[in-house]
């Protein structure tokens, strides 16, 4: 197995450090890899491989879905992007290398980063057995994003008013 070199905090979107990461793992930063990486960095919305493919195809019509898949795996192996999983959905990709969790909105499907507070000690929150070795930690939240939550509030207020009116007319 290839030994991977990870940097704890890599300066984000710094082309030099991306080149470094790719080289450290014995790859070259080809034009295709650059395009795929840029497509994820540009929007930071946790796209699926197919979504990345659609974006890159606009600039590089010759690129294939298989190449995008392979490139995403390479970028993941180099520690430049991370897989984001949710139940049985297809993998999404995240370029944020800072400690963070993910929020999944049940209504609109948006996925966004939940940053970890810098002074919070996660190890004090989770009672991981002392001799256990943690190699991966994934924190996820599910529910309604702020937009969907405020829409829900609004619609329940409106329907509440209507019900109030109905009751009044009945009496
Ligand atoms: Zn993320
Ligand atoms: Zn939402």
Helix content: 40-55%
| Tally of alpha and pi helices | 6
Strand order of the largest sheet: 4-3-5
Rg (CA only): 21 Å
Count of β-strands? 5
CATH level-3 fold name of the domain at 1-97: Arc Repressor Mutant, subunit A
Low-confidence stretches: 1-11, 163-171
- CATH architectural name of the domain at 1-97: Orthogonal Bundle
Tell me, briefly, the overall form.
flat
Helical/strand content category? alpha+beta
Q: Report strand %.
A: 5-15%
| Distance separating the two termini | 76 Å
| Distinct ligands, ions and cofactors found in the model | zinc ion
Largest sheet: 3 strands, mixed
Mean pLDDT: 82
| SSE order | HHHHEEEEHEH
Please tell me about this protein's structure.
By secondary structure, the protein is an alpha+beta fold. The protein has a domain of 97 residues: Arc Repressor Mutant, subunit A (Orthogonal Bundle). It contains 6 helices and 5 strands. The site of one zinc ion (ZN) has 8 residues, from helix 6.
Short recap of the structure:
The protein is α+β, with helices and mostly antiparallel strands and 171 residues long.
